[in-house]
Amino acid sequence: MRRGALIHSLVPLLSSLLAIFGAFLVGGVFLTIMGKDAKAAYMLLATRALGSSFGITETVIKMAPLLLVSAGLLIALRASVWNIGIDGQFLIGAGAVGVVAPRLAGVMPLFPMLIICGLTAFVFGALWGVIPAILRVRYGLNEIITTIMMNFVAIYVTSWLVKGLFRDTSVVAPQMPSIPKDWRLPHIPLTRIHVGVVVGIVIVLFLHFMFRRGTFGFSLNVMGLSRKAAVHAGISVDRLAILALLLSAGMAGLAGANDVLGVKGLFQGEWNPAYGFTGFALVFLARLNGLAIIPFAYFFAFLLFGGEMMARTAGIPVFFVEMLEGLMLVFFAVSVYFERAVLRKVVQE
Amino acid sequence: MDADRMLVFTSVLLGSGLVASVPLLLAALGETFAERAGLLNLGIEGMMLIGSFVGFLAALNTESIYFGLASGLLIGMLLGFMFGLTTITLHVDQIIVGLGTTVFASGITGFLFRELYGRRFPSLSVSIPKVAVPLLSEIPVIGPAFFKQQVIVYSTWVLVLIMAFVLDHTSFGLRIRAVGESPLAADAAGVNVARVRYCAILIGGGLAGLGGAFLAVGDLSFFVPGMTVGQGFIAIAIAMLGKWRPRRVFVGALLFGILRSVSNGLQILHINIRPELTLMLPYLGIILALVVLAGRTTLPAALGIPYQRGER
């Protein structure tokens, strides 16, 4: 029996690792075909991003938006709500902070200013999820397509606003006014890492325990596993689906605030980091487990940073990381198939 | 604003709308077949993008538009086959594989394009000649818009009729619908569920690839990374709005093709409106259309659910 329990917790981790390995393998073969030195590229990835304090710092900084986005996706996917609108919600949240933060800077103390900015981003991100949420519960329309459409609307809306109404006219490039240095997210003492990472980790941990113990988390789980069961248990599935989508959208908005307040210092036109699909790969590989999200967020942040490194020094286009992520998603789906076969065998024994 | 210019505007809007609708139509027709058979292909966006890239590359190097289109079709079918391999044979999650395919496609096309051309953006020197239909092309406004087009535009109209016929009046069409509504019953009746689904996804992937190739080769004559900008997802929505009936899908594709060309049309009128506002029209339009027409769509019952013999 103990052996069974061990296998049940180890096998899922194994299939995630297998998916990552498969993606790197195919990616490596592809690089070799393209006439690149795959081994050197991967070595570079490992040494620069893992072996240097600069690399580790940069990676940890990149973790913050991924943690926040993943926290949102965790809520949504646990409840079987397919929020693919992360990128749009992120941009809207970031844009809202880009507008609000420069105007609040200097008017009030830092701490309340940051709280207001965070709330603004959360609310605006969540607002971007309202239409898909209503369409899902009122008309039974799957949220996949509507959230994707909202992504494109967000790109054009923010681009319109940053070039028009909220443009900083004192510079040539289309951008919003920049936030004074002292009014951005403070750093963790003795590091260059801003506190966004801490916020991300706290939220992810909170969610983890919420899904473990809280009734809200439990109802989301039930709904995700079986809508029918949730209805029979007296859970108001519509309200819960709206809530899951809005919370998840709000978290994406918060991630936008993180990047504007912690990294960029302003909202620029044409800026769209598109963390959505990275978040998807991350949360699936972490098997919708809050605790596992933290190391996987490190891994994906490492991949994003390493991708930039490889582009700069090994001449490998940054698109390579996107390729790997796509492969990971496909391989993950496939390895889950084999995992089920393995687990079935264990049960039969 | 004078009446003449208004007529030119309408004619150009309809004409370029018609051309812009072709990729949407092809992809949505393919998705119609796939979804009718129970497969939700979210990789369609990626299949279009790869179709664009491969089609463009082939057309650029052979200086043949038709070779480009054929390459798009073939690569789309290959991708459809891969999608089938994972979702039909291995019964894995269609949404994850579909999204993974789309992400992968965006990565690999961007990578290869950057490797091959760096920051240059070559464009095709060849284009498909336009053929005027006698008499019909003489009709004012509509004539030049609809009846003075590339041959492939006309052939998509024929394709719509063929696909509608296949779906409604052939045993293959019946099998596709049966497999999408109740694979269990179809299996019991002796239909090879997997084979029918493979056929449907080959059609779906092939048409997505062809649509993508037309976008790059027939419509725009260039390729840029990420150029499909969500058209695959729009195609899914069009298939849904058209209730998986080819003729309605055609109407939907035309409508959204026209919405896509509004920004081009406005230039003729010299109306100065920010491009962002017109570019977002198709996406807003899809949401609006879903709101208006929603509630009246019924999904194929087995959509998205892998079929495994002996399970439930």
Write the layout of secondary structure elements.
The complex is a heterodimer of chains A (349) and B (312).
Chain A: H1 2-33, H2 38-51, H3 53-78, H4 86-104, H5 110-127, H6 130-139, H7 143-163, H8 196-213, H9 215-225, H10 227-232, H11 237-264, H12 276-285, H13 290-313, H14 319-348
Helix pairs in contact in A: 1-14, 2-3, 2-13, 3-8, 3-11, 3-12, 3-13, 4-5, 4-7, 4-11, 5-11, 6-7, 6-11, 8-9, 8-13, 12-13, 12-14
Chain B: H1 3-36, H2 44-62, H3 65-89, H4 94-117, E1 130-132, H5 142-146, E2 148-150, H6 151-169, H7 171-181, H8 183-188, H9 193-220, H10 231-241, H11 246-260, H12 262-268, H13 275-279, H14 281-293
What does this structure look like?
- By secondary structure, chain A is an all-alpha fold.
- Chain A folds into two domains: 1-36 and 318-349, no CATH class; 54-315, Orthogonal Bundle (ABC transporter involved in vitamin B12 uptake, BtuC).
- In chain A, 77% of the residues lie in helices and 0% in strands.
- In chain A, helix 4 packs antiparallel against helix 5 (110-127).
- Chain B has helices at residues 3-36, 44-62, 65-89, 94-117, 142-146, 151-169, 171-181, 183-188, 193-220, 231-241, 246-260, 262-268, 275-279, 281-293; strands at residues 130-132, 148-150.
- Chain B contains 14 helices and two strands, in the order H-H-H-H-E-H-E-H-H-H-H-H-H-H-H-H.
- Chain B has one domain (8-124, 134-293): ABC transporter involved in vitamin B12 uptake, BtuC.
- Chain B has a two-stranded antiparallel sheet.
- With 312 residues, chain B is mainly α.
- At the A-B interface, helix 6, helix 7, helix 12 and helix 14 of A face helix 4, helix 10, helix 13 and helix 14 of B.
Q: Helices and strands of chain A, in N-to-C order?
A: HHHHHHHHHHHHHH
The CATH class of chain B turns out to be Mainly Alpha
CATH class of the largest domain in chain A, anyone? Mainly Alpha
Taken together, the total number of domains of chain B comes to 1
**Approximate helicity band of chain A:** over 70%
Unreliable spans of chain A are none
Principal-axes shape call of chain B = globular
Structural class estimated from helices and strands of chain B:
mainly alpha
